[in-house]
Design a protein that fits this description.
The chain is α+β, with helices and mostly antiparallel strands and about 140 residues long. It has one domain. Helix content is about 20%, strand content about 35%. Strands 1, 2, 3, 4, 5, 6, 7 and 8 form an 8-stranded antiparallel β-sheet that branches. The longest helix is centred in the first third of the chain and has 15 residues, at about 1-15.
Length: about 140
Amino acid sequence: MDKIIVLIALVFFSFFQSSFADTCPSISDIQKQLFHGFKAYDTDDGKPLPPKRLAYFARHAEQFILAEWQDTQGHFGEIHCFYRDGEGSQMETYLMKTSFKPENSKNWYQVSGSMHCAAGMNACLFKKHLPRKRLARI
């Protein structure tokens, strides 16, 4: 009986669960340098932040500003998360993760070829694309 329940759960998640909701990292997580798969980039040149700048960003980030989504892969694209320090500076840094799309479209709006969400970090939800896997035939 237990095997049947496990098999049903596996089939459900394999066929019907292709994505899950996620958000930008919290300020607390950033300060602990827990980026949950996000990578930090320079807003000026798009290059990865060197360790010294990443440490500065982690120490000084105080407020989430905006999530931005760019369609880079057809249906799923890149999420960019922006934060500011205590003086209101955007710190010339964003956190990025790929293979996502916005969720809850009422909080997202079109701006110059990308989608933005400034409704608050917990309201700017997005879904990660999880490729469907086929179960082997028995």
